[in-house]
Structures are given as structure tokens and as C-alpha cells.
Write a structure and sequence with these properties.
Blueprint lengths: L1 H15 L4 E3 L2 E3 L7 H23 L4 H14 L1 H14 L16 H7 L4 E2 L2 E2 L2 H18 L17 H11 L8 H42 L6 H17 L17
Antiparallel strand pairs: 1-2, 3-4
């Protein structure tokens, strides 16, 4: 509910503002320790990324309530946003976007970690699980760049707005595609903020969609084996439908004005 989200936001904002906050039966304040504020910013940013790779990867709609709170906190406390991006880029290099190259002397295990895989006791996580986590983080990022906290002071610009999404898309399309990963990330990104990008960039956006269909999807196909076609087929269908309808659908789970009255 909207009222619940406001409670969460106020509590986080109060904590970061140095006010005493009640939690688990005790009162805490960042002023209790010289590094209190820095520690809370770090842990909070880390927690938001974990929501992306956990909550959002299983429940796509949850990207929006989480993102709108983070967007508002980022506006008032830029340090949290900076640390959030650092955590996000480390956990999901594709959010830069960047495909790390393996350098000489880097072990396979270390390289897997650089690519975003979780490695425990020399065992690398399964591809499906890895893709799900990356998908959740990209969806959260795509939600953040288009949302503003509705009760903020709308004077300034969004601290990390749609122009960053436009840049992400352009840079992504300049990279050589990777099997599995590229098709999934593009689809996630376009499903979540394609509508917002369309409204903001108009004809330029449609040129990009046309480029994806005519030039970029064939390049993804070239590196994709027959067993990895699922995501690529979904991306193809999505782009084709949007170009035919000349419309990008609103993402599922977007927060409507009526949500804030709940």
C-alpha cells in the first residue's frame, strides 16, 4: 500500500537525517558513532541491490515500490545513490554495461566472479539462477531511472534519470552480444522502461528499436546456440509487436496515482 511505502521511506529518511529511529524495540541513531552515517549508507545501498537480485528476480512487479523509495532517498541523500551504483556495478557488471574480459593470470573462479556469478567452494551457480539474479538487478535499475518519489520537492532533476537509461541502451548496443545474457537484459530493460524512453526520446527511440530488430538481433542470433533461443525469441516478439503497434506497453506493476491513496 502507498501508506506503508511512505512509512518505510520516512523511517529510512529519518535515520539518514540523524533522527532517532525505533527498530526492533530499541532506539538507534547514526549520531551514536562517528562512522554511523557512512556505515548505514553502505548497508542500505547493499540492501537495495540485494532486493534487486532476490525479491525483484522472483516478483518482477516489486521493482517499482523498491525503486520509488530508493529514488526518493537518492534525491535527499546522494551518498546512498553513489554507493548503490558501486554495489550494483560490482554485482552486475552488465548494469554499467560492461562485459569483463579475462586478463592473463586471472583464475577461472575469479573470472566467473567478475562476470557476476556466485562461486562457493569452487562451485559456480547454475546458469538459470545467475540469469534470474541479473534480470532482477537490471529491472530494478530500469525502474529507478524513470521514477520520482511523489512527495519530494520536484524542483531539481532526478538524481539518476532517464538519460542514464538512454546511455545504457546505446552502450549496450555498441557491445558485441553474449549468448543468453544480452537478449535477456535487453528484454528486461525494454519491458520496464521502454514506455518511458519512448515518451522521452520519440523518433530517436523508434530508430533504436528498428536498429535492434534489423541489425542487433541477427548479431545475437549469430552467437546463440539452439538450446539458448528462449529469451531471444521473446525479445524478437516483443520488439516486433512494439514496432507494429508503434507503442511500448506500460510495464506491469507500474505505480498508478490511485496506489498512493491506499
Amino acid at each position: 500500500a502507498g501508506s506503508k511505502l511512505r512509512e518505510v521511506f520516512d523511517k529510512i529518511n529519518n535515520l539518514l537525517s540523524g533522527k532517532p529511529v525505533q527498530t526492533e524495540g530499541q532506539t538507534v541513531s547514526v549520531t551514536q558513532h562517528p562512522q554511523g552515517l557512512e556505515f548505514v549508507c553502505y548497508k542500505l545501498a547493499e540492501k537495495f541491490v540485494k532486493h534487486g537480485e532476490g525479491e525483484v528476480s522472483f516478483h518482477h512487479d516489486s521493482a517499482f515500490p523498491i525503486a520509488v523509495v530508493l529514488s526518493g532517498i537518492w534525491e535527499l541523500h546522494p551518498r546512498v545513490g553513489d554507493i548503490f551504483l558501486a554495489h550494483l556495478h560490482k554485482k552486475c557488471p552488465y548494469s554499467v554495461p560492461f562485459y569483463p574480459a579475462r586478463k592473463e593470470g586471472t583464475s577461472v573462479e575469479e573470472y566467473q566472479r567478475m562476470l557476476g556469478y556466485e562461486v562457493h567452494d569452487s562451485k559456480v551457480e547454475e546458469q538459470d539462477h545467475f540469469l534470474k539474479r541479473m534480470s532482477g538487478m537490471i529491472r530494478l535499475y530500469a525502474a529507478i531511472i524513470q521514477l520520482r518519489w511523489p512527495y519530494g520537492n520536484k524542483q531539481g532533476a532526478h538524481p539518476h534519470g532517464l538519460s542514464y537509461g538512454w546511455r545504457w541502451l546505446a552502450q549496450m548496443l555498441n557491445l558485441e552480444p553474449l549468448a543468453d545474457v544480452t537478449a535477456m537484459l535487453l528484454l528486461d530493460f525494454l519491458e520496464v522502461c521502454g514506455n518511458a524512453l519512448m515518451k522521452q526520446y520519440g523518433i530517436q527511440f523508434w530508430k533504436t528499436m528498428f536498429f535492434i530488430q534489423k541489425s542487433y538481433i541477427p548479431r545475437i542470433e549469430a552467437v546463440t546456440s539452439s538450446g539458448q533461443m528462449g529469451c531471444l525469441s521473446r525479445l524478437k516478439n516483443f520488439v516486433q509487436k512494439c514496432l507494429q503497434a508503434e507503442e511500448i506497453p506500460l510495464p506491469k506493476g507500474i505505480l498508478t496515482p490511485s496506489f498512493w491513496r491506499t
